[in-house]
């Protein structure tokens, strides 16, 4: 059990299960990209540990880059817009693997992928460590999913509660 600020979290996915699953995902990516040289696009901050552990298991030639997604309030009708920050290289003609920590409603990745596809990559797949299927509101094709989880708030292993809790080896769920 851990306490972050006013909230209590209990163990949910232990470190060894996370690492075991990452090995499986990496094996799949190694096979499917054996004759390619993908550009791995890591969505910061949450995906930093997942991306690091995944990358260490990749035996293919690949490049790794990092983006942030900034949300800003637009007009009342269009709600929150998302802007990609930090993508400096050309992605035209590249095989992209977008690495995310968690897909909840899917709004973030839906918008990110739309903006990336506008720049004409050769292909785009998504690798997310966690996925909450019952929370999904935007259709998303998720190619590599670590764990499907119920619609509860999780922290740890990159995921935060109010900026805290990213630095654990295990994933915890709100009690
Ligand atoms: P959407 O709804 O756009 O959300 O798919 C994706 C982003 O929302 C954050 N998120 C969480 N962060 N525990 C967290 O620490 C959670 O359970 C959780 N659910 C969603 C996260 O930043 C993700 O990138
Ligand atoms: Mg995130």
From TrEMBL:
This is Hypoxanthine phosphoribosyltransferase. Transmembrane segments: none annotated. Pfam families: Pribosyltran (PF00156). It catalyses: IMP + diphosphate = hypoxanthine + 5-phospho-alpha-D-ribose 1-diphosphate; GMP + diphosphate = guanine + 5-phospho-alpha-D-ribose 1-diphosphate. It is found in: Cytoplasm. Residues 16-161 form the Phosphoribosyltransferase domain. InterPro entries: HGPRT, Hxn_phspho_trans, PRTase-like, PRTase_dom. PANTHER family: HYPOXANTHINE PHOSPHORIBOSYLTRANSFERASE, HYPOXANTHINE-GUANINE PHOSPHORIBOSYLTRANSFERASE. Belongs to the purine/pyrimidine phosphoribosyltransferase family. Its EC number is 2.4.2.8. Keywords: Cytoplasm, Glycosyltransferase, Magnesium, Metal-binding, Nucleotide-binding, Purine salvage, Transferase.
């Amino acid at each position: 059990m851990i306490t972050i600020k006013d909230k209590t979290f209990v163990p949910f996915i232990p470190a060894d299960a996370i690492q075991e699953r990452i090995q499986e995902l990496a094996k799949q990516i190694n096979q499917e990209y054996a004759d390619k040289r993908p550009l791995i696009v890591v969505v910061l901050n949450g995906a930093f540990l997942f991306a690091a552990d995944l990358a260490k298991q990749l035996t293919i030639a690949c490049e790794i880059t990092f983006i942030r997604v900034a949300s800003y309030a637009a007009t009342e009708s269009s709600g929150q817009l998302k802007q990609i920050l930090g993508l400096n290289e050309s992605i035209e003609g590249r095989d992209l693997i977008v690495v995310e920590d968690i897909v909840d409603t899917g709004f973030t990745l839906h918008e990110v992928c739309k903006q990336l596809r506008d720049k004409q990559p050769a292909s785009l797949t998504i690798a997310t460590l966690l996925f909450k299927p019952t929370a999904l509101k935007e259709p998303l094709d998720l190619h590599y999913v670590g764990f499907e989880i119920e619609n509860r708030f999780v922290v740890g292993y990159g995921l935060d509660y109010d900026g805290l809790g990213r630095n654990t080896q295990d994933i915890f769920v709100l009690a």
